[in-house]
């Protein structure tokens, strides 16, 4: 057979906003809004540069709920470029952009095939009049598909050409993602396909290295603090024998980082600032020319805690750091500095004290361990969380998060009452 | 902390007021009303906590200066470790406090705050320094600061106020979120998100419209298509109507032309440009007739002229000869003029020649001239003769000069010289010296010089020998005396002689010899010295006396022998010297000086001798020269004789030649040569005369010939031949000839003209005929009999053609618009059936409709543009992306803020619970302390005080455990409760922070004696830990206090 190549991507989430950023400058904001498009264009460029035969896009091209016309137009523009380069594109829709969702009335270029949502569809790919690949796929016709779509795929036809399955699904049960179109690895392997192009999971995952390769390429652009590290797509080359080999290629334009920084050995604010600066420069290096967004988490216990616990100190540091980054071509935007540091106190000895502080700490202990008491405590937060806006805009507080808050409240009380002066 | 001293610089009634030595325990200030107790108390407070702002509207007493000084002063205090500090403050300036440390250094508010245990004014006023008013004013206890202090006193959190922390937490949380608020951060974010959401919804709506817009766009495009079609149709119709209107004029003109045509008679044909052609031919015929009559006239004239014209033929036949004469005319004229001139010249030349010949000699004529040879050889002979004579004369002159020179100069000079020498000789010969004697003397002197030292030496030797001999004779056994040393002077002499000779030789310019002599003499002297030193014998040692004796004998013998020989030698030398001295004219033996003098004498003599010899030699030479010269003179004289003879011979020869040639004998050769030149001139003149003669002859001949020729021709032409002036005649005949030539030429021309005119005449007649024929032909072509008819026909023909052309032109105009063929005929039919008014109305209607449609179209197009723009705008809209981004950012911020709010709220809630628990389980120490004071002051009537932590209420329990609100207590008991509480605060506060001095202002006045005493007891106890200043105006109180607290100090405040 004739050798050929294709690129496998998924979860473009075009025009989806970055999440988890609490402060942003207008300049950086425009860079971030362009990030998903930039990654997509990188992929198109890559297709043209590598002269691949087709591009597979496995779901979640955009977020239907956002109703972003821009996303769809830019998507169409990208596909037009492919069409001009005589490269085919195969698209399935996922849970974020189901067929039933809103989409603009756009004319798709002739080289684009969008799989339907009724049943699994087969498309042949021909090169110079020879059928060299069969591609199976199905789009989500609605958002909530909880059935196992893998079961609907037919087995590979005997002596058939190179066969690819495109599926937006959740393989396995413990992925941390919404359980849309759940299936098992066995379901997929049993179809005897030559390549499974999956989508939905944002973290690059190779479920099966070989025979056949079963791959989540991950999203090509990380969109929140959980989506750190390199992001990209897979270039798959199929040789004359029909054996595929895949290569991961980075295409993200902005990279996420979360860095922990211990204050154990820091004594002054200046030391902390220096440490953060070092951290930023390290990130700049790691990002390899890209801009990046970083969350810094301060941990540890030490003298520095009391000074950074003062209201406004971290905000000022952050402001300075951001001002430094304004205008940088390759910026490192510190999204936030989270303070998980603790005062340098012997909590145990405080607990044993017979005075007010001892009583207070004992109470905190009780509230963070006793679920009933915790529920009682939660009520104190009702004024905010049960307010109309709060109900609508605030996420529900899980216990872990709540315990975290209690812990921080305790630290706050100690800071206020003894200011780290007593041990 | 304790007060040590109070110094009031100026404050109310006080000025420069000093209170010293305050006790650490109780100090009682006693003074009547107005004495200034309250002033002192206020002074203390203001020094510690500052003066109130003068501008503030409070009713506080500012204690203005009444007796002078600076408003302010200082407190001297000591801390727990007995260190003294000074706290100074003045209301002037910045109202800043100054803390002076023991080491002199200073501090400010921070240092003061540290010294007073961070107590503020409220605490101090309410707990430490108070009077009856504060005590009675229950509300003062509710001050937040005091309450906080009360509670914190037992909480183990130091100086932090729990209620402040609580309040702080609440404020912070309130800044983040307030129910129903709009300014707190979270509320702001809620609103912002709400706004973003609504804007997003709008945008979403826009995007939904996107499809609708697309649909609308399609519809509107279709509509535009329809309208455009209709518009095109109407436009076509409108154009058609406009065309009809346009061609209407043409159409009408065609009709008119056709009508006109019918009225014009028809002619079959008419020549093109007929009239023109006719006119032209008629004109031509007139012209030709005119030309013919003109030619006739000319012909007549020519004939008349011919008949008048005459020509002389003979003259014409002699034309060549006459013309030749004309050519020779100039030559003839010049010849006739030249002839007399030349004749004159001939005469002059002849006279000239005669004169020249006379110059040579009187008998000289032309014949003699032609016989005289003036050839170059003859001239050469004369020149030779001249040279010979001249040479001879010159030689004679030279020789005479020579003879004269020798005789006069040379001989005379030599004779003078001889005279001079002779004179010299005469003087010299006076000192003439015998040369031989001089030579002898010089030799002898030389010998003397050599011998003299020899003699002196020998004499010295002799002396020595004689001395030795004497010694030998006296000391025979004695050893012989050492031989005397040889003297050195001879050597020195030798060198001196050398030097002298060198000097002399240098003077004599012969220093080489001088040096050689010096060298030789020096070498001799050196040899002499060496030899003389060797002769010194070695002394003989004394131990060999015998042998010596023998030697001595032998020696004495030797000596005598040597003496003898020496004597004889001496004698010989002496005699030699003497003989030589005689020669040199010395009297005896001369000493060296004499010798030297003699020597210089001799030398001068020899020099003179030499000079003499030289002169003699010169004399001889001159004599010889004189001889030679006299000889020479003689020879020259002889030669002179010979030369004179020769000259005579030459003169003779010359005279002979002159005779031979027939020339004057007196002539010198030079003169002869001059005559030669004259002769030559004469010969030349003779020749020229002959030439002139020949020339005159030839001229005369040519004149005659010319004249003969001319007269023959004149005769031939029948001209008069009597008196002839060749030139005049010739001129006349030439003129006549020219006239004849001219006339013959004119005649020829007239013949030719006549011929031509005849020819032209014939031609004109032919042309005339042709023209007349053409005119008749033209008339027949135009179907006319006459010219008039022809002209009528032409007019009609033209009119007709014009109309026809117009019709065609206008039809073409219509066709250009309508098109050819059927459309044209349709067009014509349509025109036939309509009227211009109808057409114009129809056109107007259509145009109106068209305009309407166009307007409609542009409206619809605009609408379509609007939609397209809308679509484009929607496509380009990026606001959504930015808003979504903004929203997520806000959400994140909201999350952060809600976490923060939650933390604050949780902290406050839990702390609240802790406070509740604390106040239930652990009564604050302050209450405990107060309880004990209260129990004592009420003499055990009340046992417990109960103070909720977060409440400003205090309850008491009596000994029967009955709880009582403060309102339920009697005034005195209530005062006692407050006093106890304050005492409790003081105690508790002192435990945790710096204890401060307590100032009471007559607080016990409402107490009954029993409780007064009990209160005094309590004060006594308190004085153990705190300094107490008690102000009172009641002497009995002083007494009682002093009685109960013996180590107290009383200070009387006196004005």
Structure description:
The complex is a heterodimer of chains A (423) and B (1055). Chain A contains twelve helices and 17 strands. In chain A, helix 8 (356-369) runs antiparallel to helix 12. With 423 residues, chain A is α/β, with parallel strands linked by helices. The longest helix of chain A has 25 residues, at 26-50. In chain A, the strands form four sheets. A six-stranded mixed beta sheet of chain A has the order 4-3-2-1-13-14, with helices on one face. A six-stranded mixed beta sheet of chain A has the order 5-6-7-10-12-11. Chain A has a three-stranded parallel beta sheet with strand order 15-16-17. The model of chain A has no long low-confidence stretch (mean pLDDT 88). Chain B has 1055 residues and is of the alpha/beta class. Mean pLDDT of chain B is 81; it is low at 538-544. Chains A and B meet through helix 1, helix 2, helix 8, helix 10 and helix 11 of A and helix 6, helix 7 and helix 23 of B.
CATH architecture of the largest domain in chain A, please?
4-Layer Sandwich
Number of helices of chain A: 12
Q: In one word, what is the shape of chain A?
A: elongated
Low-confidence stretches of chain A: none
Q: Structural class from helices and strands of chain A?
A: alpha/beta
Give the name of the CATH superfamily of the largest domain in chain A: Metallo-dependent phosphatases
Using DSSP, what is the number of strands of chain A?
17
Mean pLDDT of chain A: 88
Q: Please, what is the average pLDDT of chain B?
A: 81
Low-pLDDT segments of chain B: 538-544
In which order are the strands of the major sheet of chain B placed?
Answer: 2-1-4-5-6-7
Q: How many beta-strand elements of chain B?
A: 14
The percent of residues in helical segments of chain A reads: 25-40%
Tell me the span between the first and last alpha carbons of chain A: 77 Å
Strand order of the largest sheet of chain A: 4-3-2-1-13-14
Radius of gyration of chain B: 95 Å
Count of individual domains of chain A: 2
């Amino acid at each position: 057979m004739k050798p050929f190549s294709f690129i496998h991507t998924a979860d473009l989430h075009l025009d989806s906003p970055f999440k988890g950023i609490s402060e942003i400058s207008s300049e950086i904001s425009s860079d971030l809004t362009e990030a998903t498009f930039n990654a997509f264009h990188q992929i198109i460029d890559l297709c043209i540069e590598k002269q691949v035969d087709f591009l597979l896009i496995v779901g979640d091209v955009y977020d239907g709920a956002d109703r972003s016309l821009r996303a769809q137009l830019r998507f169409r523009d990208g596909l037009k470029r492919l069409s001009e380069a005589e490269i085919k594109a195969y698209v399935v829709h996922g849970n974020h952009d189901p067929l039933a969702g809103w989409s603009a009335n756009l004319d798709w270029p002739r080289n684009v095939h969008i799989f339907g949502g009724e049943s699994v569809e087969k498309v042949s790919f021909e090169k110079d009049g020879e059928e060299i690949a069969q591609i199976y796929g199905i789009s989500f016709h609605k958002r909530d598909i909880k059935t196992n779509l893998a079961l609907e795929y037919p087995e590979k036809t005997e002596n058939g050409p190179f066969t690819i399955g495109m599926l937006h699904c959740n393989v396995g049960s413990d992925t941390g993602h919404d359980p849309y179109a759940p299936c098992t690895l066995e379901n997929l392997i049993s179809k005897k396909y030559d390549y499974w192009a999956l989508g939905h999971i944002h973290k690059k995952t190779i479920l099966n290295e070989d025979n056949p390769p079963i791959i989540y390429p991950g999203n090509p652009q990380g969109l929140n603090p959980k989506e750190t590290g390199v992001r990209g797509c897979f270039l798959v080359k199929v040789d004359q024998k029909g054996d595929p080999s895949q290569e991961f290629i980075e295409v993200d334009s902005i990279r996420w980082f979360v860095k922990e920084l211990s204050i154990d050995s820091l004594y002054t604010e200046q030391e902390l600032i220096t440490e953060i600066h070092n951290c930023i420069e390290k990130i700049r290096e790691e990002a390899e020319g890209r801009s990046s967004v970083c969350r810094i988490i301060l941990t540890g216990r030490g003298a520095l805690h009391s000074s950074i616990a003062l209201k406004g100190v971290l905000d000022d540091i952050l402001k300075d750091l951001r001002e430094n980054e304004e205008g940088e071509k390759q910026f490192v935007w510190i999204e936030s500095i989270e303070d998980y540091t603790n005062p340098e106190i012997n909590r145990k000895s405080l607990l044993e004290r017979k005075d007010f502080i001892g009583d207070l700490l004992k109470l905190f202990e009780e509230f963070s361990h006793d679920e009933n008491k915790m529920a009682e405590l939660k009520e104190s937060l009702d004024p905010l969380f049960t307010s109309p806006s709060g109900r609508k805009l605030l996420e529900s507080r899980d216990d872990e998060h709540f315990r975290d808050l209690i812990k921080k409240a305790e630290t706050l009380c100690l800071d206020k009452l003894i200011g780290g002066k007593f041990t | 902390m304790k007060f040590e001293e109070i110094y009031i610089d100026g404050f109310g009634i006080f000025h420069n007021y000093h209170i010293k030595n305050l006790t650490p325990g109780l100090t009682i200030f006693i003074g009547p009303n107005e004495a200034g107790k309250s002033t002192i108390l206020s002074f203390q407070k203001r020094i510690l906590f500052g003066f109130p702002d003068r501008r503030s509207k409070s009713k506080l007493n500012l204690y203005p200066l009444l007796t002078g000084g600076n408003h302010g002063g200082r407190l001297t205090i000591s801390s727990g470790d007995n260190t003294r500090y000074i706290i100074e403050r003045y209301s002037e300036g910045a109202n800043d406090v100054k803390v002076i440390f023991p080491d002199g250094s200073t501090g400010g508010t921070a240092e003061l705050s540290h010294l007073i245990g961070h107590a503020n004014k409220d605490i101090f006023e309410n707990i430490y320094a108070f009077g009856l008013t504060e005590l009675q004013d229950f509300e003062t206890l509710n001050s937040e600061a005091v309450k906080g202090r009360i509670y914190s006193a037992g909480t183990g959190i130091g100086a932090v106020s729990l209620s402040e922390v609580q309040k702080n937490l609440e404020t912070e949380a309130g800044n983040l979120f307030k129910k129903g608020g709009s300014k707190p951060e979270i509320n702001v974010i809620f609103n912002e998100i709400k706004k973003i959401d609504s804007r997003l919804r709008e945008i979403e709506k826009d995007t939904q419209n996107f499809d609708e817009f697309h649909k609308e766009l399609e519809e509107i495009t279709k509509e535009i298509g329809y309208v455009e079609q209709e518009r095109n149709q109407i436009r076509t119709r409108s154009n058609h109507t406009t065309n009809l209107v346009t061609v209407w004029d043409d159409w009408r003109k065609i009709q008119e032309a056709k009508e006109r045509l019918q009225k014009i008679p028809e002619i079959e044909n008419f020549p093109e440009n007929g009239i023109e052609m006719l006119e032209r031919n008629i004109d031509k015929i007139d012209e030709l007739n005119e030309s013919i009559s003109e030619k006739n006239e000319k012909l007549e004239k020519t004939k008349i002229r011919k008949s008048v014209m005459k020509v002389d033929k003979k003259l014409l036949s002699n034309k060549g000869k006459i013309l030749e004469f004309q050519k020779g005319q100039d030559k003839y004229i010049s010849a006739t003029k030249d002839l007399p001139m030349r004749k004159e010249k001939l005469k002059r030349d002849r006279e000239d020649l005669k004169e020249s010949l006379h110059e040579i000699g009187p008998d000289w004529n032309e014949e003699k001239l032609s016989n005289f040879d003036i050839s170059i050889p003859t001239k050469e002979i004369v020149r030779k003769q001249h040279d010979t004579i001249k040479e001879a004369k010159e030689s004679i002159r030279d020789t005479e000069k020579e003879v004269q020179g020798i005789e006069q100069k040379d001989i005379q000079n030599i004779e003078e010289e001889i005279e001079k020498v002779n004179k010299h000789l005469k003087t010299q010969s006076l000192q003439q010296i015998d040369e031989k004697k001089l030579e002898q003397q010089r030799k002898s002197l030389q010998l003397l010089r050599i011998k003299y030292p020899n003699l002196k030496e020998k004499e010295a030797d002799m002396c020595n020998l004689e001395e030795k001999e004497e010694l030998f004779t006296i000391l025979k056994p004695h050893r012989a005396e050492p031989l005397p040393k040889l003297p050195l002077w001879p050597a020195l002499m030798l060198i001196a002689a050398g030097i002298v000779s060198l000097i002399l030789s240098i003077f004599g310019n012969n220093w080489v010899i001088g040096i050689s002599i010096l060298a030789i003499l020096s070498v001799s002297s050196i040899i002499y010295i060496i030899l003389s030193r060797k002769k010194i014998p070695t002394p003989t040692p004394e131990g060999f006396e015998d042998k010596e004796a023998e030697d001595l004998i032998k020696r004495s013998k030797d000596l005598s022998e040597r003496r003898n020989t020496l004597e004889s030698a001496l004698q010989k030398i002496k005699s030699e010297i003497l003989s030589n001295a005689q020669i040199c004219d010395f009297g005896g033996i001369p000493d060296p000086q004499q010798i030297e003098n003699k020597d210089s004498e001799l030398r001068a003599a020899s020099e003179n001798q030499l000079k003499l010899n030289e002169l003699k030699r010169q004399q001889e030479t001159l004599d010889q020269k004189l001889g030679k010269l006299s000889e020479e003179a003689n020879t020259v004289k002889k030669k002179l004789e010979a030369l004179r003879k020769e000259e005579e011979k030459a003169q003779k020869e010359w005279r002979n030649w002159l005779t031979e040639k027939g020339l004057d004998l007196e002539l010198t050769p030079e003169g002869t040569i001059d005559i030669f030149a004259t002769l030559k001139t004469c010969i030349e003149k003779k020749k020229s005369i002959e030439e002139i003669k020949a020339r005159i002859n030839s001229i005369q001949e040519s004149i005659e010939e010319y004249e003969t020729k001319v007269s023959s021709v004149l005769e031939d032409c029948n001209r008069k031949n009597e008196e002839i002036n060749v030139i005049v005649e010739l001129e006349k005949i030439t003129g006549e000839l020219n006239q004849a030539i001219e006339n013959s030429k004119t005649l020829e021309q007239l013949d030719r003209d006549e011929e031509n005119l005849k020819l032209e005449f014939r031609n004109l007649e032919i042309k005339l005929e042709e023209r007349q024929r053409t005119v008749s032909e033209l008339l027949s072509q135009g179907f006319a009999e006459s010219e008039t008819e022809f002209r009528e026909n032409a007019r009609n023909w033209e009119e007709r053609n014009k109309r026809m052309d117009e019709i065609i032109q206008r039809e073409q105009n219509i066709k250009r618009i309508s098109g050819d063929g059927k459309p044209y005929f349709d067009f014509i039919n349509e025109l036939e059936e309509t009227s211009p008014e109808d057409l114009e109305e129809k056109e107007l209607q259509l145009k109106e409709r068209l305009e309407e449609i166009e307007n409609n179209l542009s409206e619809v197009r605009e609408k379509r543009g609007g939609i397209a723009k809308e679509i484009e705008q929607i496509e380009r809209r990026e606001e959504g992306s930015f808003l979504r981004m903004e929203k997520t950012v806000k959400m994140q911020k909201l999350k952060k803020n809600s976490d923060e709010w939650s933390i604050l709220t949780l902290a406050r809630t839990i702390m609240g619970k802790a406070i509740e628990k604390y106040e239930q389980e652990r009564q604050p120490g302050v209450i405990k302390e107060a309880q004990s004071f209260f129990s004592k002051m009420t003499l055990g009537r009340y046992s417990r005080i109960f103070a909720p932590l977060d409440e400003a209420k205090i309850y008491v329990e009596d000994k029967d455990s009955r709880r009582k609100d403060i309102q339920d207590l009697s005034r005195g008991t209530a005062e006692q409760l407050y006093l106890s509480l304050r005492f409790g605060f003081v105690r508790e506060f002192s435990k945790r922070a710096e204890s401060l001095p307590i100032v009471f202002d007559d607080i016990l006045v409402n107490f009954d004696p029993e409780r007064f005493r009990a209160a005094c007891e309590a004060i006594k106890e308190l004085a153990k830990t705190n300094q107490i200043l008690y102000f009172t105006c009641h002497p009995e109180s002083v007494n009682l206090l002093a009685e109960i607290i013996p180590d107290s100090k009383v200070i009387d405040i006196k004005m």
